[in-house]
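Hi support team,

I've been running sequence recovery on a batch of backbones for a student project. Most finish fine, but this one hangs at about 90% for roughly twenty minutes before it completes. I'm not sure whether the input is malformed or the queue is just slow. I've pasted the structure tokens below so you can try to reproduce it. Let me know if you need the job ID as well.

Thanks,
M.K.
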């Protein structure tokens, strides 16, 4: 007897043997061999189902891989700070030594100053914690020597030097400002986190925008990733090793 021309809903054999009409719901026999194969497959599937062997939970299901997290600045090993003070200071020196194209931060400033437009005022923006001060190692007592050299060079070249921190008055902004004033570093102004602003990044962005209204932001030097997002962007960004993410 010829096999039925319609799909068997229990076994879906048309799909199993790969017949071209499987999507239409019709299964047309082309030879006795196909009929035998269908009969054998129907028998095997029926046996498995009747014995309860084929359980849905036993069928391996390909799982979609979990989405990989977006890379962040903190994930870049070049920005992760070493554990010791000496190693960290060495890493800071290297960050200033090559800011791209094999030139130092000071060389970059000189090149930019050479292309200053008539009447243009240039500025650099510096972080405070772990940029100007060795905060993680000695609080507000010790300066970062390489950063001090940099801001003195910037001042000599005619750049305004501003300091921006995520600290608010409640978290010691005034004490950090006073530490830099006492050290006598060049300073055109200081910006802390405004009252009522909880987001550190938003506070720093607001400060950069205010500076950018009157100056061309030539360079930003900072350690915290929040210093680089939103607001007015600098022409060159220098990222120092972030001591909040040590290796």
């Amino acid at each position: 007897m010829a096999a039925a021309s319609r799909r068997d809903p229990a076994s879906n054999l048309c799909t199993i043997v790969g017949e071209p009409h499987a999507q239409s719901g019709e299964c047309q026999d082309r030879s006795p061999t196909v009929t035998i194969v269908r009969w054998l497959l129907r028998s095997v599937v029926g046996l498995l189902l009747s014995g309860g062997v084929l359980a849905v939970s036993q069928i391996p299901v390909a799982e979609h891989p979990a989405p990989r997290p977006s890379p962040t600045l903190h994930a870049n090993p070049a920005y992760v700070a070493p554990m010791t003070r000496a190693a960290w200071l060495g890493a800071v020196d290297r960050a200033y030594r090559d800011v791209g194209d094999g030139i130092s931060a000071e060389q970059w400033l000189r090149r930019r100053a050479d292309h200053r437009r008539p009447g243009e005022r240039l500025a650099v923006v510096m972080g405070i914690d772990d940029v100007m001060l060795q905060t993680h190692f000695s609080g507000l007592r010790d300066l970062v020597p390489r950063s001090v050299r940099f801001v003195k060079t910037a001042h000599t070249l005619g750049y305004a030097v501003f300091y921006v921190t995520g600290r608010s008055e409640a978290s010691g902004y005034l004490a950090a400002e006073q530490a830099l004033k006492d050290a006598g570093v060049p300073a055109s102004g200081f910006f802390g986190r405004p009252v009522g602003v909880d987001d550190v990044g938003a506070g720093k962005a607001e400060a950069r925008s205010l500076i950018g209204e009157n100056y061309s932001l030539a360079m930003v030097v900072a350690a915290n990733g929040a210093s680089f997002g939103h607001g007015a962007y600098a022409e060159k960004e220098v990222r120092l090793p972030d001591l909040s993410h040590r290796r």
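--
Follow-up from support: It reproduced on our side and the slowdown came from queue contention, not your input. Strands lie at 80-81, 122-126, 160-164, 189-191, 216-222, 236-239, 242-246. No action needed from you.
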